[in-house]
Amino acid sequence: MATFRYRAATSAGALSIGQLEGGSPAHVIDQLRRSGLTPIEVVETQALAQPGARVRPSNASRKAVAIAIGELAVLLGADLTLDRALAVCADNVERPAEKAAFAELHRRVKEGAPLSRAMAEAKDLFPPMASAMAEAGEANGRLDVALTRLAETLERGEALRQVIAAAMVYPAILAVIAVGVILTMLLWVIPQFEGLFSDAGAQLPFMTRLVMGISHAVRQYGPVGLGVAIIAGFGVSRWARSPAMRGTFDRWVLRLPQIGTLVTAAELGRYTRVLGSLVDGGVPLPDALAIARRSLVNTHLSAASDRVAAGVKQGAGLTASLSAEGVFPRAALSFVRTGEETARLGLMLGRLADVLDREVRTRIEGLIAILTPLITVIMGAIVATVIASIMTAILGFNDLALSP
Q: Are 389 and 215 in contact (CB under 8 A)?
């Protein structure tokens, strides 16, 4: 059974967007017709992973994409056709890789593909939420507004990423220095004393023998151990990419102290921002939940989002469905409840996203504030241990020499 994305018209003429499982497109079309819908488009989701323009993710690439999407929104708002607006955008992009990718996007749209599908095919260029928000704009006929919100979301995400990267520079440099100092002592300093201590043997203090043993092991087996660690890391990363292990790993990450809360806040912040934009754009809540789900990277949260969407389709309230899954913090649920009760769900979801983004920034700054002194203390403790073990052995020899 494959999963198919569909767009269909209801009996009242409204647009319905979602996903169904079936053995073939014809089978899905039959299901839609039996449900009283008129199929417009049925596409297998796996077909969206076709190779498109290859763009290596980088800060400059993400910034160029955000600027181009913002420009595209302005052009569409000025009543240019999508074909013409994409052509102008592709001409204005300066970086060669992104220019070629937008040219490919333009070509796919000229062939008749919706912009959302063309974005999904260019998976190296756009994040999953980009095609979701574009699809929402196509659904309500306000593509320029949807792309404006998408550009703002991408720019906000890139700004947060740059803040995090800048904050991590000092701890990263400190970690490199710490590893360099420790390796220098194990590979060059300790061996200088091996000749001096060679005749002492078992008379050496335990800590001195331990440090010298570690130094010998690093020099003797270090390259082999490093190669084994690289191979093992590569194997584990491949193994963790399997669907079953990916789900287990994602659940495990969410349970980690501090890290789990941070990942949850980051994922839900992105999810609520996309969902709020869709609701503000006039997309029905069940369809908006199905589209916003594609912005989630964590498979455990993604599965929970599917169950929330199913509950809302059956008539349950959004707050009750989210509360039943237990993935949203209690404070966040109050935003959703207020939005439902005041009929301003999109506005409250946007404010919730801002709160979650601030929480992510605060938690990261707190972790970095802890990490920096922790690295310093660990490095100092290791260096002090090495020096103390050597000095203890030397002072022991002096005591033996002075004893009558």
A: no
* Residue 105, domain extent: 59-126
> Any alpha helices (H) in 185-205, and if so which ranges?
191-197
pLDDT number for residue 174: 84
pLDDT one-digit tens code per residue, 205-251: 788 888 888 888 888 888 888 888 889 888 877 776 677 677 788 88
User: Are residues 222 and 311 located together in one domain of the fold?
Assistant: yes
Angle between helices 318-325 and 330-342 (to 10 degrees): 170
Reading the block at residue 100, the tokens are 């070629």
Query: Alpha-carbon torsion 111, 116, 120, 125, what sign?
Result: positive
CA distance 14 to 36: 12
Model-level pTM? 0.66
User: Is 274 found in the same domain as 175?
Assistant: yes
What does the H/E/C string look like for 100-156?
HHHHHHHHHHHCCCCHHHHHHHCCCCCCHHHHHHHHHHHHHCCHHHHHHHHHHHHHH
